[in-house]
Amino acid sequence: MKRIGLLPKLVIAIILGIMIGYVSMTANNFFVVRVLATYTSIFGGFLKYIVPFIILAFVAPGIAELGKGAGKLLGITTAIAYLSTITAGTLAFIVTAVLLGIIVDPNTTLNTTENAVNAFFDINIDPAMGVMTALVTAFLLGIGMTHIEGKSLYNMLKDFQGVIQKTIEKVIIPLLPIHIMGVFASLTAGGKAGTIISTFGKVILLIVALQITYVLFQYFNVMIITKKNPFKALKNMLPAYFTAIGTQSSAATIPVTVKCVNNNGVSEEVNEFVTPLCATIHLAGDTITLTLTAMVVMVMFGTVPTFSMMFPYILMLGVTMVAAPGIPGGGVMAALGLLQGMLGFNEVQTSLMIALHFAQDSFGTAANVTGDGAIALIINKISKKKNKY
């Protein structure tokens, strides 16, 4: 029997949550909703607890690995990937800012304390450190490890990374649908689900449209820099695009991406270096999603996102995406700390972000790997110029 994927589970969880909330509201009996609210409270507390560890486990070794790389092409590739990520996030901000009035009803503001269904009890799980403390510590350790000869600290952090990744894969991801179900049950019981569902559809359509537009923009730049036919290059990348839709993982799509990049005439040496690297550090599709959805969720809860508020968040996304876990939904897991630490998101807001991210994750990953092909073409051109001298 074929196992049900995470996205169908989340869709089922949302539907069940809405049904449970509606029935409870109609019958004026909120026992089941309170049971689910208790679960979401505990799970949300655990999620908040583990976020600093996710940052330490992935960002610190990620920075160390980049720093230990050899050659100028590493720096050039990293710079182009970072610039691409920041450009994607800025584009998402501009488009979303223009369309916010269409996406979200300005007269409808959600309030998690109004008509809230309380949990039976709460269990406080205090994080070992704050999110910003974890980020600074990760930078300190990552940069520091590039300047020491010993590998003991790096190996320890890689082992720690394995523990956190297994926790995400075996605990957080399997239990996530029940958490989402509880959130939507509470929102529906409080009369708020209708606003959220009507907004979700418009948001997902806009995300996919923006991701495709940005991929076209990347290959337009390829045409300018390399004189390569962008439509032929994109056609060669289609197998990677559709494979990524199925795998929901840039890392899992690497073998297909390498073959597609090779078909675009990129040298084997550049391809084998750039493609796996970009699968880790270039997540422009995720950045579009995490910028757009964050802005929408903020407006839904009564906060108007400004450029001065969002641009530092986008800049930090470019860094945290370097070390996003190579699993479905890894981008949003890496961004949870920024959402909480920089934008002040609460548990309900982060839960909505997770649901929205997973709903489009296939297309975001497809945009990521297709963009990797564009960067490979540019680096191939730069490499040829360097070899002439």
Overview of the structural elements:
The protein is an all-alpha fold and 389 residues long. It has one domain (6-387): Proton glutamate symport protein. It has 13 helices and no strands. It has helices at residues 6-27, 31-67, 72-103, 131-145, 152-189, 193-226, 230-247, 254-263, 268-281, 284-300, 307-320, 330-341, 347-387. α3 packs antiparallel against α6 (193-226), α3 (72-103) packs antiparallel against α13 (347-387) and α7 (230-247) runs antiparallel to α8. The longest helix has 41 residues, at 347-387. The chain is globular, with a radius of gyration of 21 Å.
In short:
The chain is an all-alpha fold and about 400 residues long.
Chain-wise SSE layout:
Layout: H1 6-27, H2 31-67, H3 72-103, H4 131-145, H5 152-189, H6 193-226, H7 230-247, H8 254-263, H9 268-281, H10 284-300, H11 307-320, H12 330-341, H13 347-387
Helix pairs in contact: 1-5, 2-4, 2-5, 2-12, 3-6, 3-9, 3-10, 3-11, 3-13, 6-7, 6-10, 6-13, 7-8, 7-13, 8-9, 8-13, 9-13, 10-12, 10-13, 11-12, 12-13
